[in-house]
Amino acid sequence: MEWENQTILVEFFLKGLSGYPRLELLFFVLIFIMYVVILLGNATLILINILDPHLHTPMYFFLGNLSFLDICYTTTSIPSTLVSFLSERKTISFSGCAVQMFLGLAMGTTECVLLGMMAFDRYVAICNPLRYPIIMSKDAYVSMAAGSWIIGAVNSAVQTVFVVQLPFCRNNIINHFSCEILAVMKLACADISGNEFIMLVATTLFILTPLLLIIVSYTLIIVSIFKISSSEGRSKAFSTCSAHLTVVIIFYGTILFMYMKPKSKETLNSDDLDATDKIISMFYGVMAPMMNPLIYSLRNKDV
């Protein structure tokens, strides 16, 4: 293979919605409003969890972590995306792109693992209520939350290090709103099969395994709920986990639809994402964090 076109890249060009100025303005307004709602909604939930002693329980501790995580996750990409919508300069430095990759992947991985931990918490609360205070002690749920953050950071650090060591050629156009790790990998002028294998292993461990834990937990929860004789008891048991289940469906449903929906031949043979893909990408990155505090507020009488 000839390496004549290889060069040291100092910046990337984020394509986003370049060429569609009206759409850029529309997306700027929409995303800006959503970002404000994300900050206010999640910050309010965190403040409520801190100030109200009745909410000092494992479930609300996890919820506080989830709210803080959503603020961090959106802040890694939304401000720079908003600036790019209003600016003709749509570039990001190589080091800035690496930081954005690390933070985005770390937050995403942490959220997957944290949702799995929250499902286990709901399983213990409903299926083993008498042992709940023992199993979900303060040491246990703090360790579970800390472990989610550590797993996210380690997974992201490993994958980011392998990506930044790849040789990049003159093509520096990232067809995305931000430095999404897979989009950056595709620009490398080297074999990325090793990176793809690492990503496959990480996806299995940190996305599919928590999803399997969620499915098993809610299967056991549903079986347990149907064993309750009174309709009031069933309703109360289901209400304790309905908010989390709604968040899981939005989060994982968007991921599965985005990566598993059939691709047209034109899409498969080109590097261009169609408008639907970009809207789904925005939904995944903005809508889910915005909906989380609303769901937990409207479907939870304690909050």
From TrEMBL:
<dbReference type="GO" id="GO:0005886">
    <property type="term" value="C:plasma membrane"/>
</dbReference>
<feature type="transmembrane region" description="Helical">
    <location>
        <begin position="60"/>
        <end position="78"/>
    </location>
</feature>
<feature type="transmembrane region" description="Helical">
    <location>
        <begin position="140"/>
        <end position="158"/>
    </location>
</feature>
<protein>
    <recommendedName>
        <fullName>Olfactory receptor</fullName>
    </recommendedName>
</protein>
<dbReference type="GO" id="GO:0005654">
    <property type="term" value="C:nucleoplasm"/>
</dbReference>
<feature type="transmembrane region" description="Helical">
    <location>
        <begin position="98"/>
        <end position="120"/>
    </location>
</feature>
<keyword id="KW-0472">Membrane</keyword>
<dbReference type="InterPro" id="IPR017452">
    <property type="entry name" value="GPCR_Rhodpsn_7TM"/>
</dbReference>
<keyword id="KW-0807">Transducer</keyword>
<feature type="transmembrane region" description="Helical">
    <location>
        <begin position="25"/>
        <end position="48"/>
    </location>
</feature>
<keyword id="KW-1003">Cell membrane</keyword>
<keyword id="KW-0297">G-protein coupled receptor</keyword>
<dbReference type="GO" id="GO:0004984">
    <property type="term" value="F:olfactory receptor activity"/>
</dbReference>
<keyword id="KW-0675">Receptor</keyword>
<dbReference type="InterPro" id="IPR000725">
    <property type="entry name" value="Olfact_rcpt"/>
</dbReference>
<comment type="function">
    <text>Odorant receptor.</text>
</comment>
<keyword id="KW-0812">Transmembrane</keyword>
<keyword id="KW-1133">Transmembrane helix</keyword>
<feature type="domain" description="G-protein coupled receptors family 1 profile">
    <location>
        <begin position="41"/>
        <end position="296"/>
    </location>
</feature>
<dbReference type="GO" id="GO:0004930">
    <property type="term" value="F:G protein-coupled receptor activity"/>
</dbReference>
<comment type="similarity">
    <text>Belongs to the G-protein coupled receptor 1 family.</text>
</comment>
<feature type="transmembrane region" description="Helical">
    <location>
        <begin position="197"/>
        <end position="226"/>
    </location>
</feature>
<feature type="transmembrane region" description="Helical">
    <location>
        <begin position="238"/>
        <end position="259"/>
    </location>
</feature>
<feature type="transmembrane region" description="Helical">
    <location>
        <begin position="279"/>
        <end position="298"/>
    </location>
</feature>
<keyword id="KW-0552">Olfaction</keyword>
<dbReference type="Pfam" id="PF13853">
    <property type="entry name" value="7tm_4"/>
</dbReference>
<dbReference type="InterPro" id="IPR000276">
    <property type="entry name" value="GPCR_Rhodpsn"/>
</dbReference>
<keyword id="KW-0716">Sensory transduction</keyword>
